[in-house]
Amino acid sequence: MTALELLRANQEEPDPEAATRSLDDPWAGIVDTCRIRTELGYRPLYPTLYTAQAAGAL
User: What is the pTM of this model?
Assistant: First the structure.
């Protein structure tokens, strides 16, 4: 999911100057869920924003 999709899901529009700003670290905030899935058997109830919206959870 992109930042733009998150903004629009919250009915917000991006800052017009956002496209001209550079990213410090484009991978910041990316999480590997492999260990929690393997060791704890975790599976998200709604794996994407779109499935949560479709289920009426938002």
Answer: 0.50
